[in-house]
């Protein structure tokens, strides 16, 4: 039986890749190991409901801080992805069949944790006709039923290989925020995100806005993969052309020696420069720090995002 704790079994597509040297992390990227009672309470609740989180599966450095506050990003549709992105620590392979009871368990956990804002993400499910769109919609509806005052953010796959109408299924379930990450600059897609297409992902987010202009859209990239500043600024321009409201920019961290190498650690001053540039290009909300991740401080950021829109409309 496959053991996902063993690197070669977790990432069979990377097992024969040469090791990539992992540079020493600078002081500004270090975080403390999680030990708080709140962290353990969140962990136990997730285990009790047999729920996966991207916090664990992707090895997020902020897991201690977020879980200690009762915040976790639920990862639906299993813990095995059909893609093999070179930056990602989520296991790759053939996923199991969908669990019809999972949306209810997610909704129960959201209610139990008392979340004002919840982020739902998933693995890529290229094995499903709709890429898992209906499962996303069912999860959104289950949360709305159990926690009607909670705001919902989805971080979806690209639905690249899904049947027509899949994206519409998710949008029609009316999440408050639709997030899909571009991850990197287009020139690095062949080596970083080989199963995806940059302009397809960009168009996906643009289509969300066309279907529902009131829905907030969000996307993020990692830096330190080998891109240059001009490439990052071009991605910002592309996002704004697609009317994306919120951009996140964080430092890429290499999960194992078999993953894509860290080209360099971007300094906090450079991140501050990216933040200033992004606001100058018209984003309603920007999060650009070394430890920024898609779901980091998502609840607080959603409140600021909503306020920023009202201020721009002259209602703030």
From TrEMBL:
Cofactor(s) in the UniProt record: [4Fe-4S] cluster
Record keywords: 4Fe-4S, Cytoplasm, Iron, Iron-sulfur, Metal-binding, S-adenosyl-L-methionine, Transferase
EC number(s) on file: 2.8.1.8
Region (Disordered): 1-27
Catalysis: reaction(s): [[Fe-S] cluster scaffold protein carrying a second [4Fe-4S](2+) cluster] + N(6)-octanoyl-L-lysyl-[protein] + 2 oxidized [2Fe-2S]-[ferredoxin] + 2 S-adenosyl-L-methionine + 4 H(+) = [[Fe-S] cluster scaffold protein] + N(6)-[(R)-dihydrolipoyl]-L-lysyl-[protein] + 4 Fe(3+) + 2 hydrogen sulfide + 2 5'-deoxyadenosine + 2 L-methionine + 2 reduced [2Fe-2S]-[ferredoxin]
Localization per Swiss-Prot or TrEMBL: Cytoplasm
Pathways involved: Protein modification; protein lipoylation via endogenous pathway; protein N(6)-(lipoyl)lysine from octanoyl-[acyl-carrier-protein]: step 2/2
UniProt entry tagged with the keyword 4Fe-4S: yes
Residues annotated as domain Radical SAM core: 67-284
Metal-binding in keyword set: yes
Name of the featured protein: Lipoyl synthase
Species per Swiss-Prot/TrEMBL record: Paracoccus rhizosphaerae
